[in-house]
Amino acid sequence: MNYDLLINLIIIINIVLTFSANLPLAGQTFRKKLQPVLTKPKSYLQNVPKYISSLIFLLIIAGLFGLGKIEIKDELIQVIRTIFAGLYVLFSWLQILAAKNLGEFYTQDIVIYKDHKLIDKGFYKIIRHPVYLTQILQDLFAGLALANYLIIPLTLFIEFPLYVLRTNFEEKILTKNLAEYKEYANRTGKWFPKVRILKTQI
């Protein structure tokens, strides 16, 4: 079996389908940008993480043509790469679902609108940053599926730390401007669901 061809097909088809699914979100984001803004802080964290994610996306496209590919012959590793391609697909669609959970408040900017509301549904019932988490995971799994020595370190050592910094900065803005955010943050996990230990009475 030609695993490289299979993995490339999975990634190409997914890119086309997710691009189509993202079009309504893009239109919604554009309309929201016309609404009155309460605050939009200036920081390199507004754009640099997005630029890195865009660079990784371009490297994924380039990786389909072999740029940065590690040559692997082992059959088991080829199968594992195919599983990683499936995980890339999974997390790219989970990201779209997470963005849809935000509805009209979905934006790629750190911004507080005058009519801003806390979203506490879907993925946001259990974690606070599912869009960023799924972005990192889909990029990592794409890099692993393509066996790409450019994408994997860029995701782990640049994109991930930048999103950690961005979430910290974003949460300060949200806590300052949304009265209910502190309580929401106490009962939800930042990146992963909080583990609640049930106490039983004897």
Topology readout:
Layout: H1 3-32, E1 37-39, H2 48-63, H3 75-102, E2 112-113, H4 130-145, H5 151-177, H6 181-187
Antiparallel strand pairs: 1-2
Q: Can you walk me through this structure?
A:
- This protein has 202 residues and is mainly α.
- The chain has a single domain, classed as Four Helix Bundle (Hemerythrin (Met), subunit A), CATH 1.20.120.1630.
- The protein is 61% helix and 2% strand.
- The chain has six helices and two strands; from the N terminus they run H-E-H-H-E-H-H-H.
- It has helices at 3-32, 48-63, 75-102, 130-145, 151-177, 181-187, and strands spanning 37-39, 112-113.
- The chain has a two-stranded antiparallel sheet with strand order 1-2.
- It starts with a helix and ends in a 15-residue tail after the last helix.
- The model has no long low-confidence stretch (mean pLDDT 93).
Whole-number mean pLDDT:
93
Write down how many β-strands occur, each being a DSSP E stretch of 2 or more residues.
Answer: 2
Q: N-to-C terminal Cα separation, in Å?
A: 59 Å
Query: Could you give the order of the helices and strands?
Result: HEHHEHHH
Q: List low-confidence stretches.
A: none
* CATH fold naming: Four Helix Bundle (Hemerythrin (Met), subunit A)
Question: Count of helices?
Answer: 6
Q: Give the % helix.
A: 55-70%
CATH-derived architecture = Up-down Bundle
